[in-house]
Amino acid sequence: MNPSEYPLGEPIAAIATALAPAALGVIRVSGNDSVRLLSACFSRGEALRAAPGNTLVHGWILGENGTADRIDEVMVAAYRSPKSFTGEEAAEITCHGGTATVLAVYRRLLAAGFREAERGEFAFRAFANGKTDLLRAEAIREIIGAQTETALSHAANRLAGDLSAEIRRVKESIIRARAAIGVEIEYPEEEDAESGAFDDSLVREALQALARLRDTWAAERLLQDGARVVLAGRTNAGKSSFFNTLLKEDRAIVSDVPGTTRDWLESTADFSGIPVRLFDTAGMRETGDAIEAEGVNRSRLLASEADLILYLVDSSEGLDAGDRAFLSDAARDGTPAVLVWNKDDRSDSKPLPSPLPTGARAAVRTSAKRGTGVSELVRQAAGILLEGTGGGPSGKAGQAVRAPALGSERQKRDVAAACESLEHAVSAAAAGFPMDAIEEDLSNALDHLASITGEVSGADVLDAVFSGFCVGK
Amino acid sequence: MNPSEYPLGEPIAAIATALAPAALGVIRVSGNDSVRLLSACFSRGEALRAAPGNTLVHGWILGENGTADRIDEVMVAAYRSPKSFTGEEAAEITCHGGTATVLAVYRRLLAAGFREAERGEFAFRAFANGKTDLLRAEAIREIIGAQTETALSHAANRLAGDLSAEIRRVKESIIRARAAIGVEIEYPEEEDAESGAFDDSLVREALQALARLRDTWAAERLLQDGARVVLAGRTNAGKSSFFNTLLKEDRAIVSDVPGTTRDWLESTADFSGIPVRLFDTAGMRETGDAIEAEGVNRSRLLASEADLILYLVDSSEGLDAGDRAFLSDAARDGTPAVLVWNKDDRSDSKPLPSPLPTGARAAVRTSAKRGTGVSELVRQAAGILLEGTGGGPSGKAGQAVRAPALGSERQKRDVAAACESLEHAVSAAAAGFPMDAIEEDLSNALDHLASITGEVSGADVLDAVFSGFCVGK
User: What does each C-alpha distance from B48 to B42, B58, B299 come to in angstroms?
Assistant: First the structure.
């Protein structure tokens, strides 16, 4: 079923937590009469039916045979309409987190009359019942998928409504501008009736705000999708230990991707808020010339698909022709590289080459052994990655108080379209077009903004947004 | 730290749900002042501090910079002492279920003053604060690890206290018997003072109840640990499709174990409540004689480690010498086998051999194609597995109303020891031993029963029980 066709009110159930052994698991239900329906398989049905909203009731989920057939001891959080996530009567059942336990409770609920929820059905109901707009619904999806704390924090601001408020503010400016035109059209003789007299300051202001928003997306997308960073360099440059240092340095989620059968190592790291997939071909070059050559080929292949290369050099050896060739190849591919002047702890460490070799956008002295220079490298790398998005090396990622930013490609498309309409309105006004033409541009811009928040959205937009959710949300 | 040394009251936090992307995640906290501590990083701190027990408060988890630094929108379930799982002041924070989200909320709580909980620390506090006995604490661990609905249901009954009540009932009988002896010892002249006059009916009754409990463990252990079942038979017997039919038939959790690099297939299935690891060497015998021979060897190896063999024969071909040899080898190893007379749908299907070949404990006609006979086979297989535990072919697994049963090896040891003491008391009484000897036996039995429930348990017992828990429970 397409999300836009999800019926409202039907009692639905979904397992809302990850299905793997844990202390607790949560199953959520929503819909008309859902608390009463749940109470039929609950040991304290009467207490549950009488429970006010936002209270917890302790009891047992019972099987078909009632108390002779206990499934699990649970806490039920009861929600009353409209004070729930969906706006409907709803409940969350917290049971023990065994896989069989969660499944047994869930099956019992289905037997009791709940239907399996579709993906995004809870969020769709929240939207359809006016509990959230599309921007905030998308922010929930973002939050669940966030890979770094920075990405999470940006999404949390959107969930809190900062972007919705910004869009509302812009809309109000445009509405006021349009109202002024309306006056002109209705009473053209009353005042200066020339179209050239249209005061476009409100429109310009709206355009400026929207253009700023539009330009936030590239950096936000980087926070969501992340970047591929490849560690390259000669065998003896110390890549393996550097790789490990980099992963240790990183305070956020770091996990080795299983699969030792691959020809490279891959891990995830947090580069100043950017989720980074870090590739290293280490382990390839320990034995034999053929394998070594193969390893270098793999490095080149990985590098050609990278967003950034960290090129390690043993600072006691310095650059050789192979290093310079690798870096200038990368430059030709358009892949930025940072020269990592490693083993800086050695007494025979050479100074950084000056000027930097072709292809190296920056250089950082590091010692994997002592762990020095690594934070600086991460900062530089994040800056270069953000620069590629127009986000600038200072980066929006690190700012404490942030201006609202966009959270999805869909939002970007609508904001960009609204910008175009406003740009058109400004040129039309400057060119002395009739007022109703300008009014149409402003109305188009408003339509795009209404689509962003979901005030007026086609089924295709709703389907695209809500089908991206997991089941249970 | 050993669980028996866990300090009570310190504010602790743990991620309680599985850490993988999902709609929701839950972090639980417990300890003195834990709600106030939590309120310091909560957007509606005052509302939370004022919240009565068993209510829900909606708000945001905030970072160090307060509202400028939102982490996630959450629901907090507030619990007031003693009405909580641990008996302490406690809370459960339900946040969005992204990995980064759950970790960020958890880290924030640690920064706010909560300590990372040790494994089983919540359950230990529940025990130490008198909210649960050891039997019910062990049942929680069982519930989380349960692999089938039957295993879950047995554990749920123990969590509900049926076993605790049974132990209490037995203890009361023994205490009454001991009190009667006390009277005899104190006033030996008053009535018939011969020790032979001791009425052992209460003790015999207690012994009977305990012996029944002791004998439940083998079948319960089978429900917890499961059994290894191997599918064997010639290449053309239809093992692969039978394997698939078996897995489809099964309504409970079925998952393929990843690892196609293995030389056999392994899946889990539910045989009338017994979690079964099902092995099939299918896929091994498609090409060449050498590989075929290797496949047969693997079958034999797997079969030698099995609890039960399902031996498939193409009923249109009937038994050959190799089949008979395999089955009699199994019988020599002491591994029971069921003869699966497969492809029963074929018109040239032969009748079942009579008598059954050596080693076949039972025979079932099946058609993997039509799916017939499979339920019957599963029932037979479960019966034979239960028989091996003394549980008998009718099986305790399927009974609607069940007598209390044991849930752990530890419980079994104590019950068996209590049985021995009571048996000794009965023989001592019969042999005319002095009353104080009998009284000592009864006291010993009571000590073992006190250890089971945790009324009097050494640190070693507590450590063994609670270190088996996961973190967050």
Answer: 8, 9, 62
Condensed to tens digits (0 to 9), the pLDDT of residues A69-80 reads 899 999 999 999
End-of-domain residue from the set A111, A132, A153: A132
Nearest CA among A180, A223, A210 for reference residue A198? A180
Amino acid B258 reads P
In degrees to the nearest 10, what's the CA dihedral of B234, B237, B238, B240?
-20
Size of interface A-B (CB pairs under 8 A): 200
**Nearest-neighbour CA in chain B from A90: distance (Å):** 13
* Structural domain containing residue B53: 3-132
Say yes or no: B234 and B366 in one domain: yes
Full-model pTM: 0.87
Q: Under a CB-based contact definition with an 8 Å cutoff, are residues B335 and B303 in contact? A: yes
Q: What is the pLDDT of residues B406-462, one digit of tens each?
A: 999 999 999 999 999 999 999 999 998 899 999 999 999 999 999 999 998 789 889
Choose among A26, A77, A122: nearest Cβ to B17: A26
- Cβ-contact A469, A85 below 8 angstroms: no
ipTM of the complex: 0.87
Cβ contact (<8 Å) for A24 and B26?
A: yes
Residues of A in contact with B73 (CB under 8 A): 156, 159-160
B58 CB neighbours in chain A (<8 A) are: 54
Q: Does B77 touch chain A (CB under 8 A)?
A: yes
Q: In sequence order, which residues have a C-beta less than 8 Å from that of residue A166 and are 6 or more positions away? A: A209, A213, A404
Before A82, cis peptide (omega within 30)? yes
| CATH code for the domain of B232 | 3.40.50.300
Helix (H, G, I), strand (E, B) or coil at A278: strand
Q: Is B268 helix (H, G, I), strand (E, B) or coil?
A: strand
**Do B286 and B411 sit in the same domain of this protein?**
no
